Amino acid sequence: MKKSVITILLLVASIGGFLIFFNPKTVSNPTQNNSDALNTPQKWESKVDDQASVTVTVTPSDLRAESGEWKFDIVMSTHSVELDQDMTKIAVLIDYSDNEYSPVRWKGAPAGGHHREGTLIFASIAPYPQDLKLNIKNIGGVQRLFSWILVKKIKNNPKNNFNF
């Protein structure tokens, strides 16, 4: 009797161990979640410009084609220059055809001080551009140019140059 109880316990422990270590994981099918991927905001690379004793970091937070407004988070830091610029007057967005677009508003810290951050907001551009540049002039007396590629080109396919 004692041997059969031990045998049963060992058998149950073996089956339990097998199920724990060799349990098949559910693998999601990428095509099933395709609509979720299209609705998920893309993470854009932050760009940093460190000139004339001022560090300016720009991170796009929304550049989706279907968005009505495109937003850029901006952080400025210095210990020697007054950050008193009107951001809506010194910044322009430039598309791949060199068309310039002025911001519609600045939402953030008011002019002044040595540390400032906020969001620069533009109307979205149609048609959706291949790339974008954000030109910020006259912070510390210099021009700062930040750029992002929005649409990747497909190699060796002259009929369809863009991968949306």
What do you see in this structure?
This protein is an alpha+beta fold and 164 residues long. The protein has helices spanning 2-21, 34-39, 87-90; strands at residues 47-51, 54-62, 69-78, 91-95, 100-101, 105-108, 115-123, 131-139, 142-149, 152-153, 162-163. The chain has a 5-stranded antiparallel beta sheet with strand order 1-2-3-7-6, with no helix packed on it. Strands 5-4-8-9 form a 4-stranded antiparallel beta sheet. The chain has a two-stranded antiparallel ribbon with strand order 10-11. The longest helix has 20 residues, at 2-21. It is elongated and about 90 Å long. The relative contact order is 0.15. Mean pLDDT is 81; it is low at 24-40.
Question: Which helices and strands occur, and which strands form pairs?
Answer:
Elements: H1 2-21, H2 34-39, E1 47-51, E2 54-62, E3 69-78, H3 87-90, E4 91-95, E5 100-101, E6 105-108, E7 115-123, E8 131-139, E9 142-149, E10 152-153, E11 162-163
Antiparallel strand pairs: 1-2, 2-3, 3-7, 4-5, 4-8, 6-7, 8-9, 10-11
